[in-house]
Amino acid sequence: MIKINIDQERCKGCRLCVIVCPKDIIIMSEHLNSAGYHPAIKIEEKEKDCIACGKCYQMCPEVAIEINKE
Amino acid sequence: MIKINIDQERCKGCRLCVIVCPKDIIIMSEHLNSAGYHPAIKIEEKEKDCIACGKCYQMCPEVAIEINKE
Amino acid sequence: MFEELIIAGYGGQGIMFCGTLLAHLAMEEGLNVTFFPSYGAEMRGGTANCRVVISREEIGSPMVKNPSSLIIFNKPSLIKFSGQLKEKGLLIINSSLVEEEIVKEGIEVIRVPVTQIAQKLGNDKVANMVALGVYIRQKGIVSLESAIKGLESILLLKDKEEKKNLIEINREALKSGFNY
Amino acid sequence: MFEELIIAGYGGQGIMFCGTLLAHLAMEEGLNVTFFPSYGAEMRGGTANCRVVISREEIGSPMVKNPSSLIIFNKPSLIKFSGQLKEKGLLIINSSLVEEEIVKEGIEVIRVPVTQIAQKLGNDKVANMVALGVYIRQKGIVSLESAIKGLESILLLKDKEEKKNLIEINREALKSGFNY
Amino acid sequence: MKKRILIRGNDAIGEGAIQSGCMAYFGYPITPQNELTAYMAKIMPKIGGVFIQAESEIAAINMVFGASLTGVRTMTSSSSPGISLKQEGISYMAACQLPGVIVNVQRGGPGLGNIAGSQGDYFQATRGGGHGDYRTIVLAPYSVQEMFDLTCLSFELADKYRSPVMVLSDGVVGQMLEPIHKDDKNVERKIKDKDWILDGCKGREPRMVRSLLLGEEELEKYNWELNNKYKRIKEQEIRAELYNVEDAEIVIIAYGIAARMGKQAVKEARRQGLKIGMIRPITLWPFPEQIVGNIAQKVNSILVIEMSLGQMIEDVKLAVEGKTKVHFYGRPGGSVLEVEEILDKLREISN
Amino acid sequence: MKKRILIRGNDAIGEGAIQSGCMAYFGYPITPQNELTAYMAKIMPKIGGVFIQAESEIAAINMVFGASLTGVRTMTSSSSPGISLKQEGISYMAACQLPGVIVNVQRGGPGLGNIAGSQGDYFQATRGGGHGDYRTIVLAPYSVQEMFDLTCLSFELADKYRSPVMVLSDGVVGQMLEPIHKDDKNVERKIKDKDWILDGCKGREPRMVRSLLLGEEELEKYNWELNNKYKRIKEQEIRAELYNVEDAEIVIIAYGIAARMGKQAVKEARRQGLKIGMIRPITLWPFPEQIVGNIAQKVNSILVIEMSLGQMIEDVKLAVEGKTKVHFYGRPGGSVLEVEEILDKLREISN
Amino acid sequence: MKKLFSYPDSLKKARFSYCPGCGHGIVHRLLAEVIDEFKIREKTIGIAPVGCAVFAYHYWNFDVTEAAHGRPPAVATGIKRVLPDRIVFTYQGDGDLASIGAAEILHAANRGENITVIFINNAIYGMTGGQMAPTTLIGQKTWTSPGGRKAELSGYPMKISEALGQLDGVHYIERVAVNNPENVLKAKKAIKKAFKNQIANKGFSLVEVLSMCPVGWAVTSVEALRWIEEKLIPVYPLGVIRDKSKST
Amino acid sequence: MKKLFSYPDSLKKARFSYCPGCGHGIVHRLLAEVIDEFKIREKTIGIAPVGCAVFAYHYWNFDVTEAAHGRPPAVATGIKRVLPDRIVFTYQGDGDLASIGAAEILHAANRGENITVIFINNAIYGMTGGQMAPTTLIGQKTWTSPGGRKAELSGYPMKISEALGQLDGVHYIERVAVNNPENVLKAKKAIKKAFKNQIANKGFSLVEVLSMCPVGWAVTSVEALRWIEEKLIPVYPLGVIRDKSKST
Ligand SMILES: Cc1ncc(C[n+]2csc(CCOP(=O)(O)OP(=O)(O)O)c2C)c(N)n1
Ligand SMILES: Cc1ncc(C[n+]2csc(CCOP(=O)(O)OP(=O)(O)O)c2C)c(N)n1
Ligand code: SF4
Ligand code: SF4
Ligand code: SF4
Ligand code: SF4
Ligand code: SF4
Ligand code: SF4
Ligand SMILES: [Mg+2]
Ligand SMILES: [Mg+2]
Q: Which CATH superfamily is domain F2-201+223-236 in?
């Protein structure tokens, strides 16, 4: 199973991962992290759709995303 | 008639005029000018052969040569 | 009068505009004033703060160390600056973003949900004006009317398109703060 | 002993080699010595001169102003330097190139046609060695033998091909001068 | 009529330049003076002037060199590392006697340092960080008002003495906003015809401007001429503010931003009954040597305060010549002087 | 065994560098130091060292910066205008505490000036022509022998204090030939492992070398650390030659080439019965302040002689603190001091 | 658990100080991955520029120094010549490389220094607040071109890579972009090649990366991707500019 | 009496300080003739470099200044922007233009400054005694390349004109030589064009002149002519490198 991990403190809410994900798995959260950004989060229910294409990882300027296979 | 005039004090004896003259009108002198160079001189008898091609003038780095028509 | 104020928060929260407007208002009142901006190491975003000194006398250092007032827009700024506040100082906190209770004694704390108020007005970017409204009322440096006049004259200088809307909403925010 | 010498002429007349060789010879004699070169504004050619100071004591300024000896290779140098020569000073003139009679009184003038002598030896470039030969004889700073030894050892350092010929003709020039 | 406007220190320099008829600005971005470059970028095209963001500080100072040759009023600005890069160019300008204004909004150093206000470049400014015997007039504003006023003055002096003039400011005064008064006068923007400018030799002999002087003792002679000019400047252009010195037992000496902390300390000390005064050199070169020397004879001691490890203190000591004790309080690297600490130091001295 | 060889001043610097284990030289041609660059071009390839004719003086000093990071002994050389261009780089080296030797064979200035020997760059060398509070050790050779010896010393000091060191020479000493004694020792050419060098983080944590210190008061702290180092240098590294000072009524103070004229004048004056001595600072920074201060108390007056309009004289005055009169005789722009004129001046003073 | 995409060893865990959506972070990661893949972390020395990436030493997990503005190629030369078996690279912005440091990059290239240059072209001076860079587009508004860059006053978007490509010392130059995942992968390939060249002693290699600066361009992070596609790439076409190994 | 070939008005009567056979003198004359022919002597400002031509102000009969080494393009920019109707040219050696001044020439070109640049490429530093220039040939012995220039250590003869030719600000670049009368005439034509462009406000024009330095090459004046033909021209081919008026 693919596990998407978005570091909530590293994320700066740029949305690049959101727009490149072909499966629309990632969205922006409502809460602020300690640096004052709304971090990206995965839609838990959709995580299973992840094809591990790595696009979100490739585009994340903060290297905040990890994709693992469990 | 063509008049070749070589400024004996400007000339630094580089010989460039000598080698480009198609009529072999110019040669190097034996005497030293005040800067310590052997200046170029025209061979008086040959001056009449000058075709005013200007090659000597074109090549003279010291702008020491003038060609006039009298 | 001698007032030393620090306004602090995230970059993007309008900290600098808040401070320069205040400086402008003080000038229009014929007071001496200095404004000094300061940014964190982050390129953008990150933290930002500014220092405003207002006085009848000639002002020495613009680099306030122990402010008499603080306007705080986020938690890191509260942690950083609250200890430096003078005794009996005024602390205005954006309670929309800062939940902490303040430990320090002997200061006047006003908690205002400026972001929420601003959101209600339609743009959370004017939270800064709400806070300024509160501050002006507390300190009485200028009247609300003068403040609004000053605000308008400054915004008119901007070459933004949406000048009118901008003035409108900022004015309302200032008022809401003043009347909070 | 305290000797201050200026050697002057056109660039290309071997002025600098003449001076450094003398400096080298003086060093080999265990004397203190300084050599200082100086070029005119012309890129190459033009004038060139050098100053050599030889002394038993520590040497102060290497920048000779009033030399005790002069070796002059051309007319402009004669005009420039002859007036600076000390009383009773030695003036060696290359009479092949300098025709002027000297006006200054109270100095020792030696006129030697060094260029002609060099030409006879087969290369007018060694005129400098002829002049140096004359100078050494007059001043007696080193013996002819030491001078020749020094000359050879220096020329051996050069990475020129024609080293041998070079040594040969320079040695002869030095001798001719010495024995002039 | 004098208007009162709230303006940033850096912008005030720009405004001063515009009001002085500056028609050509060349700069390269560097914090904490970027607002000035941006100000010129905005205004110059509007008044028909020249603005170029040069490829480097070196290019900028040499563009100033070129513009100055035409007789136009011209300026460049930078901050510490960028000013280091201009040293060769400044030396050339001084050598060719070309007027021009160079603004240094100092930051913390050495190296890349930081972008806070600092006073670490005093030596460089006053001793000529470049090569050779030359001096540049150095003016040190301590308020936004003076950013404006001294910029105007710098253009006057540059023309008057055919010399580069430096405005030595710092990141604090550069970044801060204060109200200033300024006249909006009509500025004459025409190039004055000077007898040394290069604008084509129509109707006159060709001119040359150069600093290579190879003739015998030619350069020496020229240096003595420059020296005479420097003497004239020393005689005529020294400026300093005296504050409460008449009865002072201790005087603080400080310039620029440090003088603000100094003044505040003087006020505070007076309130506490201490007889403290202050001398604020406005021209750093020429340094108000006599003023300091005279006052040194009357006071118990002198406290030099600087936002550096101590640089102006050498000029103070040279002026004092051992006549009284010279103390120092300073903080390098862009840290701000604390009024409280100045007071502590004053108390320490007065005991 | 010590050999005696006749060698040009510039070459002696090169030879000193080679003997000190210098393995990387970066330079850009400029008169009157060209023989040094050429010397390194010839020798470095032979000993497996690095020689690069850089594209500019700025590139050269930054190459030195890079080479120094690896721990190798490294050097650059130039003359006045080129040294001006290196000021930013020197400030960076001082800030990053990188050892390296910078040779300035001074010529006449300001601007392009001329190519004669001069002493117009004293301020630049001793005050840091670059930005920020920093100092470089400055050594001033006055003979070809010292060109060699002080170059060797400069490499030692650079490593000892992790600091750029300047050899401040001039065109006269650079161009002249004199016999020198030198050991031909076996030079160790391996890079010493220092605990700050960058050579890949194998077997250790990654390192960084930088001068940007943005943390609050971080740069200030660092500056005070540097200051402590400078204090240590002041305590330990002052060097000066005293000549005939014991009974002197007047002392001449001079460095470098000027000190040769000075010494000659002392000898001449002694011959004429005048009690003259000389102090010759060998380290210009740190300046032999105490030595001068102590002697100042004993003499009638001091005569500073320089081949400039007067720069070192400020350090002398700072040391003297008004204890005795300080006179000056100097010639700027590459003109040579005349012994006769020094004597005239001495006579004038002694009356 | 198998890591498919994860944080590279050659990056420290520190948070970047870049603005949201900034391209620097992506390129840092690519660099780190390449260094990881070649297993050269322990013999690499990186040179950070003066520019937004000035703090790179906080992020890169190997030896790093910081050069004066524009001088990384000179510093790299000094290091590489003394330690020819180490891997030395510079990381430079368009202000650093193409403006103040134009002479240094030109000459390092012409000397054929065996170094790798990562050139971040974001068409602006990010760090100092958004001034015009040599690479700024015609019409682009910046702090120092408030009316938009005008060719008559400020010249043209500078094609420094093309200019460098004319020099015989250059082994390899390619222009890439990081504005979409595909381009990011191509960028990585180019960076990898540039390091491989150095490892194989091939000489000077440079990768120009068109990189997002949403703040400097006053657009959102997402718009910045399109800005590269629609505005930058037409002026700075992607692809190999010089590759000696491919020429005859 | 009719003057066929005579001393141009735009030259003063002073003797040159150049070595015998030096190319600088020829180019000075060409320049002067062109300025005479355009009748612009009274509105021309020339910028002499630091290099053998540093004394040009003694020779040129119009307003002249001397720029710091490598900075003539910046000085020219300063003058020309203030006085756009004057004719401003720089005269620079290969050390001045291609080495220390590489950034300045690159940017003046990229800005498309409406100036004329005369670039004397003699493959050596003449003035300082014959050191290696960026344009020095492989194998060429100089004071700082005593064993001959080696590509591994010092890189390649720098084709700066070709590099500049890539920049959009450039209107015209041509390479000429002055090693025989025919080439001298072509050189004059190119210089004339470069001035004509400026007069017509066309922008940046540069003429690279391969020029003799017999002393620096350690050959006779006559051999130097052949040296250009046989050694320099093969590396630096003559001809137009860029001409906007001819491109479409
Ligand atoms: C000598 C010098 N000049 C100027 C500066 C100021 N400065 C810092 S970064 C920078 C430009 C940064 O732009 P770029 O290289 O494009 O990098 P970016 O920030 O866009 O990544 C400048 C001009 C400096 N630090 N030093
Ligand atoms: C800043 C600076 N660096 C170095 C020099 C020394 N210098 C004078 S001319 C020159 C090079 C001359 O070569 P080039 O430009 O090719 O002109 P050429 O003499 O060959 O005509 C150099 C390095 C200087 N005057 N200023
Ligand atoms: S790996 Fe691909 S599918 Fe999975 S979350 Fe990331 S972008 Fe979406
Ligand atoms: S790309 Fe990275 S920084 Fe941007 S929103 Fe997604 S996780 Fe956050
Ligand atoms: S003009 Fe021609 S033919 Fe006459 S002398 Fe000159 S080169 Fe010879
Ligand atoms: S070309 Fe000119 S300088 Fe050369 S020899 Fe002929 S006249 Fe003399
Ligand atoms: S200013 Fe631009 S380049 Fe710099 S961090 Fe922000 S987005 Fe990145
Ligand atoms: S050195 Fe070369 S370029 Fe210079 S004047 Fe002599 S021949 Fe001409
Ligand atoms: Mg950029
Ligand atoms: Mg050349």
A: Thiamin diphosphate (ThDP)-binding fold, Pyr/PP domains (3.40.50.970)
